[in-house]
Amino acid sequence: MPKQRTSNKDLLEQAQQLEAEDRLPEAAGYYTKVITADPLNTHAYNRLMIIFRKQKEYRKELTVINKAIKTYEDSMRQEQQAWLKNNRKMARLSKALAHSLGLIDPKGKPLHEDRMVSTWRKRRELVTQKLKRST
Hints:
Layout: H1 8-20, H2 24-37, H3 42-54, H4 58-86, H5 88-100, H6 115-134
Helix pairs in contact: 1-2, 2-3, 3-4, 4-6
């Protein structure tokens, strides 16, 4: 009998059910499966961070935070490069407009960050401080 593929939605539902039953290690496994299948699933990252925080597994939480930030930034960079490649004239005009509105720095980097990434960066600082205090 062929093995049925489980959708990300089903995996998330199972993880949430396990988490509600306080079966955190098993729930973490399901959230990890969701992230493997959908690396940009912010909900799975957030829940996995919370599970590790509840278990006081700060090194694991820090690893998840770093992976989430890197995955998101890499994805944004790839999307931007693909768009720039296909829309050179519009990109030049957009960059000039963004610069005049103060949305990017002189090197062309955005001055404002996605709210989720900003939250993850703050959490990373807190976790890093906890790890320093515990050593």
